[in-house]
Amino acid sequence: VHRRIEYLRGATRAYVDALYGSTIPPDLLDSAAGRLAVMRSPTMWWTQDGIVMGTEGNGCCPLNCTHVYGYTTLLERLFPDLAMDMAYSNFVRNYDPAHGAT
Question: How far apart are CA 45 and CA 28, in angstroms?
Fold first, then answer.
């Protein structure tokens, strides 16, 4: 992080300026920013293979809570490839044939 601080600072400032410099109502912006922030939170991450993993953060269903991020359509609309990988995890990677469920 330290080596990339100037890039990170500039990218963060550009994001904030673009988001909050728009004419979108502040309440809607706050809601959207919160949903996007989860992509870089400790509850969601990408493996080196590009697989999207997630957890609710409370010990429930570790590594396979990608369904939690489906409660909103914002991520899916902005990043359709991410949404496709999360759906693949939900219905293929996490499928347990012994129980017939994910």
Answer: 25
> How is the chain split among helix, strand and coil, in percent rounded to 5?
60, 10, 35
User: Cα dihedral sign for 4, 43, 16, 51?
Assistant: positive
* Concatenated DSSP letters of 30-67: HHHHHHHHGGGSTTEEE-TT--EEE--SSSSSTT--GG
* Residue 57 tokens, joined: 């953060």
Q: Are 52 and 66 in contact (CB under 8 A)?
A: yes
Whole-angstrom distance, CA of residue 46 vs CA of residue 41: 11
Residue 76 dihedral angles phi and psi, to the nearest 5°: -65, -35
- Cβ neighbours around 22 below 10 Å, total: 10
pLDDT, position 88: 84
Amino acid 64: pLDDT: 67
pTM over 0.90: no
Q: Answer whether 38's CB lies under 8 Å from 69's CB.
A: yes
